[in-house]
Every structure is written in structure tokens, then in C-alpha cells.
Specification:
0% strand, 133 residues
Length: 133
């Protein structure tokens, strides 16, 4: 029984060995200029592949940098908005402390009225004096 199993393994080894020898014979029959041309084509393909990979990585890095810049800009805008709101709140509190609540409300109302006049059609047309602008 051992001999039968050894024979089947030898048959497989013979097929694999024969295929290897056949490949070596076919490869050795290829002329040298063909191998040189294949080498040049392979080098050119490797160069194109490396260039494509490098460009892909560069574009990924560029996109990541743009995302970081957008995030940082959004954070700066949010911080500036919070600062403006805090400054407006402090200014309102100072007006109330300085003028009193009733007079501070009148100042705010007068400021809103001035803004409305400045934004009016007459002001845009230049029919009003420059005192309001």
C-alpha cells in the first residue's frame, strides 16, 4: 500500500518537474532583444504605476490639507461671531449702567432709526445730506 501511494506522488512530481523543464526550455528559446524589449516595457509600466500612485497620494494630502483649512476657518468664524456677540452684550450692559434702562432703550431705538434712514431709497439715491451716511 505504501508503494502505491509513493507512485502517485512520484507521478505528480514528474508532471510538475516536466512542466518546469518545459517552461525553462521555452524561456531559453526567446531571443535576447525580446527580453530587452520586455524589460523596457516592464520598467516603463513600473514608472507609470509609481507616478500614478504618487499623484494619488499627493491629491489625498491636498484634500486633507484643504479640509483642515476649512475646519480652521470655520472655527475662526465661529470664534469671531462669539466675540462680536459678547462685545455687543457688554456694550448693551455699559449703556444700561451709564444711561439707565429706559434711556439705553431710547439710544438703541434711535440707532435703529438711523440705520433705517441710511438704508432707505432716498439715501441710496443721494438725496439726503451726508450727515446720516
Amino acid at each position: 500500500m505504501e508503494k502505491g501511494s509513493k507512485d502517485s506522488n512520484d507521478g505528480y512530481a514528474t508532471v510538475v518537474g516536466g512542466a518546469f523543464v518545459g517552461i525553462v526550455v521555452v524561456v531559453s528559446m526567446v531571443p535576447e532583444p525580446v527580453w530587452i524589449a520586455l524589460g523596457i516595457v516592464a520598467a516603463f509600466a513600473a514608472l507609470i504605476g509609481a507616478s500614478y500612485w504618487a499623484m494619488s497620494e499627493y491629491e489625498k494630502a491636498l484634500a486633507a490639507a484643504q479640509d483642515r483649512a476649512n475646519t480652521q476657518q470655520a472655527a475662526q468664524v465661529a470664534t469671531a461671531k462669539q466675540q462680536r456677540e459678547e462685545d455687543a452684550r457688554k456694550a448693551k450692559q455699559r449703556r444700561i449702567e451709564t444711561l439707565g434702562a429706559k434711556n439705553a432703550a431710547l439710544v438703541v431705538s434711535a440707532g435703529a432709526a438711523v440705520k433705517q434712514v441710511v438704508a432707505s431709497e432716498a439715501a441710496r439715491a443721494g438725496n439726503m445730506s451726508d450727515e446720516f451716511a
